[in-house]
């Protein structure tokens, strides 16, 4: 049975009747749309990971939140349906999280992305904010808010992701240590629950739904609108990279920098396993890396480097100039002299830096390839051990792609959202406050990495997850993928019961987000 439909009320009802009917139309596929719609359906079984390819039976292109509500209300009311529904934002998941095998995929970008910007007046209380639809991309919000001299505070590195897709996970980048993840920068949401109810929620109104949905892996509702906190946008950014060959010095300096939020606006860092990795991570960084650190030691063995990347925004409100601020910061750092570089770029180019890497990778046929990525939150107490575990398990000379590693601060995360953070086993209160995000963002070139090789990388990632999840390291996956219910139970730990209770409350039939592989459809 195949459907590709334009969204009208009649079509929604036809699709529901067809999918819910016990006799179904399996023998005679029906197509309501032109050929390009069928093609679209095929691309809906693809995501950025290119590892899972689950085809839906139908595609819904809603024109309004009410269309989504109608679909879910009808499915919820039909007692014999087994149909599941996945919202698809930009489809940049890695393991089929936005797919729905034989179910319905809702293309969130078909709802017009009206962006309304509210700029707080001088004498007005409250905040500047943007109201934006769940399927809009962060790049659209940036472009629109900059017209008002405003910008969201918290970002992801890549901006061609949907608002609803990142809010269902977390949304992390170099601003997170200072402003929290994107899920800490939301004032209000419109959500269609798995029962079809369209609810406006916030920290003070239907707050249980609000917090459950944030970081909720799409399990409790579909975000159709978000109210995002805005701040004044800087014009320019001073962007600095400093290199290290000592891991302890690298992490100590990172932790030093996040203790200076008045000076530092952005902090990330990466492990550089080989020279091509340095070159590809430098595409967007317009500095002349004339004296690059040597990747071969005098004895001929290969060396690994670590790079801190930080930025200072050129706010006109600051009374010192940016150069002085950078000097004040770098004078306290212990990088490997002379390997420090800085550039000045526009705020837009800085935030949109990964798109330059995308252009370069696309031109070399290396964007639309499998991405066996692994992202983990690691307590400060276990970060060195985790780094050793990682480096013992990857082929340093052959690794393609960045390995991000930078610290975050626990008190910037609301404890009542659904996201799972690591618990450090033994450490002081101060140490407990810091944990790291590590992103092993590996690309595999099908020309050199066969299906068997990809499978080997996925099994290696699983081994790393298992080893890092023990009490000794205490890590948790970010953008999690788990093979069984028991693993999900362990992932959520003491928050599992709360997660299940929210599922029973907001999507009791298990209709939503089947691609996450957590709950089964009840019928
Ligand atoms: P999709 O893949 O479309 O969906 C992801 C999940 O969210 C699915 O379960 C889907 O059903 C659900 N969903 C989608 N839309 C909605 C909605 N409106 N309401 C409810 N649920 C919904 N993450 C970071 O935190 N920081 C980064 O710097 C970062 N960089 C990235 C760079 C690249 C190149 C890529 C590919 C990913 C990156 N990510 C990053 C990960 C990214 O944030 C997540 O994969 C996110 O889910 C992608 O958003 P999307 O719109 O593509 O979501």
TrEMBL record:
One GO BP annotation of this record: cytokinin metabolic process
Coiled-coil residues: none
EC class name: oxidoreductase
Gene Ontology molecular function terms on file: cytokinin dehydrogenase activity; FAD binding
InterPro entries: Cytok_DH_C_sf, Cytokinin_DH_FAD/cytokin-bd, FAD-bd_PCMH, FAD-bd_PCMH-like_sf, FAD-bd_PCMH_sub1, FAD-bd_PCMH_sub2, FAD-linked_Oxase-like_C, FAD-linked_Oxidoreductases_BP
EC numbers: 1.5.99.12
Superkingdom of the organism of origin: Eukaryota
Bilayer-crossing regions: none
Positions of the FAD-binding PCMH-type domain: 52-233
Cofactor(s) for this UniProt protein: FAD
Keywords linked to the UniProt accession: FAD, Flavoprotein, Oxidoreductase, Signal
Signal sequence, renumbered to the chain: 1-22
Pfam families recorded: Cytokin-bind, FAD_binding_4
Family membership: Belongs to the oxygen-dependent FAD-linked oxidoreductase family.
Protein name: cytokinin dehydrogenase
Source species: Canna indica (Indian-shot)
